[in-house]
């Protein structure tokens, strides 16, 4: 079989368009306090009209030349909006220096998917004949819309205690709402999840070129859209613990790190 063998149809087509626009605003209130605000809007459109082999080796029949195929006609539009504002400030309380960060993040994601999947006639691997099948029409598509809203509030304080100890305390709380609509079946479903993601870190410098550190954190990342069965993707959650030692030599031109982490 030649490497150029094509198992689709001449009218296979794949298009992707992406664009974004946004701004970033920084304002310095004083030497110690500042404000940052940013906004970004992203847009994408994906089209896939294609016929292809139905899987891997399982698509090849027992005669070792007949290939089972499938067809799809998919179009997806995605709109994403993110607005983030945070305040950063430095101050001192007794022997402790604080580097404080406070912020809020708003997100909206609208994912629209129109698709139809169908079986296509098989093709001969060694003597293919094309043009005997038309990809399903757009009017036969399923029509699904997912709208996701996220509100995140976060805070972080980096404490420097003397010259040898630094402590990081932080956390983020997310309110997550996902509304799914099947506009062909006239079905809708709403999912709401709240999550707190803490973050703790400690650095101790017994001598200037050596730092002993440990950190622990949890994460929460919403997932947009659904699988081919229409089931909503679950948010991704994670937890990480890390401990290690870092050294610096030759005026910071050479560094070495030994660490152990668990995900």
TrEMBL record:
Predominant cellular place of this UniProt entry's protein: membrane
A Pfam family the protein falls into: TonB_dep_Rec_b-barrel
Positions of the TonB-dependent receptor-like beta-barrel domain: 6-260
Subcellular location: Cell outer membrane
Bilayer topology annotation: Multi-pass membrane protein
PROSITE patterns registered for this protein in UniProt: TONB_DEPENDENT_REC_3
This protein's UniProt keywords: Cell outer membrane, Ion transport, Iron, Iron transport, Membrane, Signal, TonB box, Transmembrane, Transmembrane beta strand, Transport
A molecular-function term among this protein's GO annotations: siderophore uptake transmembrane transporter activity
Keyword Transmembrane: yes
Keyword Signal included in the entry's annotation: yes
Family: Belongs to the TonB-dependent receptor family.
Protein name: TonB-dependent receptor-like beta-barrel domain-containing protein
Protein source organism: Chroococcidiopsis cubana SAG 39.79
């Amino acid at each position: 079989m030649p490497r150029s063998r094509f198992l689709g149809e001449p009218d296979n087509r794949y298009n992707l368009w992406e664009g974004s626009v946004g701004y970033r605003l920084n304002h310095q209130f004083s030497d110690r306090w500042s404000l940052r605000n940013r906004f970004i809007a992203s847009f994408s459109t994906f089209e896939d009209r294609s016929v292809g082999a139905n899987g891997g080796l399982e698509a090849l029949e027992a005669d070792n030349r007949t290939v089972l195929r499938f067809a799809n006609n998919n179009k997806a539009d995605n709109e994403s909006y993110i607005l983030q504002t945070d305040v950063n400030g430095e101050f001192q309380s007794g022997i402790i220096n604080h580097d404080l960060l406070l912020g809020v993040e708003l997100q909206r994601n609208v994912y629209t998917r129109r698709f139809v999947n169908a079986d296509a006639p098989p093709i001969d691997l060694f003597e293919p004949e094309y043009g005997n099948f038309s990809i399903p029409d757009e009017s036969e598509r399923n029509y699904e819309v997912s709208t996701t809203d996220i509100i995140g509030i976060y805070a972080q304080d980096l404490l420097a205690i003397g010259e040898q100890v630094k402590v990081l305390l932080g956390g983020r709380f997310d309110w997550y709402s996902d509304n799914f609509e099947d506009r062909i079946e006239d079905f809708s479903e709403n999912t709401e999840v709240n999550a707190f993601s803490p973050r703790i870190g400690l650095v101790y410098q017994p001598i200037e070129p050596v730092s002993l550190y440990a950190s622990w954190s949890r994460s929460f990342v919403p997932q947009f859209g659904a699988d081919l069965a229409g089931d909503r993707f679950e948010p991704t959650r994670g937890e990480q613990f890390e401990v290690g030692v870092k050294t610096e030599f030759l005026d910071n031109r050479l560094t070495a790190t030994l660490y152990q982490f668990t995900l």
